[in-house]
Amino acid sequence: MAKEELLEFEGVITEVLPEARYRVRLSNDHEIIAYTAGRMKKNRIRTLAGDRVTVEVSPYDLNKGRLIFRHMDSRPQTSNQKRRPFIKRR
Asked: E strands of 1-90, at which residues?
C-alpha cells in the first residue's frame, strides 16, 4: 500500500507556542498548528514569528502540520550583530 501524499503550503508564523509548536497562517488564510520537523531540529534552524515557512499537512487532519523549510528572505541580516562561535560539547 502506497504512502499517502502530503499537501505542501506556504505560510507565515504568527505565534510561537510552547513545546516547539507554532501557529501558522497559510497563504489561503487558514490557520494551523505546526511543529518543527526533525531535520530542522537536527540542523538547529531557528524560527521566529514573522518567518515565511513551508508546511506539510496530512490530508486526514488539515488543522495540524509540520514545518519543513524556513525561507531565508523573510528575516533581514544585521551586520552589527556578533555571532558566538559554535563550540561542540560532548
From this structure: 7-17, 21-26, 31-36, 52-57, 64-70
